[in-house]
Amino acid sequence: MAKMTSGYVCTECGWQAAKWVGRCGECQQWGTVVEAGAPKASLSRTNRATAPAPGREARPITELQGDALFHRQTGIGEFDRVLGGGVVPGAAILLSGEPGVGKSTLLLDAAARAAMVGARVLYVSGEESTGQIRMRAERTGALHNTLFLASETDLATVLGHIEAVNPELIIVDSVQTLASSEVEGGAGGPAQVREVAAALIRVAKDRSTPVILVGHVTKDGAVAGPRLLEHLVDVVCHFEGDRNTALRFLRTLKNRYGPTDEVGCFEMTGSGIREVTDPSGLFLSRATEPVSGTCATVAMEGRRALPVEVQVLVVPTTAPNPRRVTSGVESARVAMILAVLERRLNAKTGDKDVYVSTVGGVKLTEPAADLAIALAILSALEDRPLPHNLAAYGEISLAGEVRPITAPQQRANEAKRLGYTTIVDSSVERLDHARSAAGLDSSMARGGSRG
Question: Which UniProt keywords apply (predicted)?
Answer without folding.
Answer: ATP-binding, DNA damage, DNA repair, DNA-binding, Hydrolase, Metal-binding, Nucleotide-binding, Stress response, Zinc, Zinc-finger
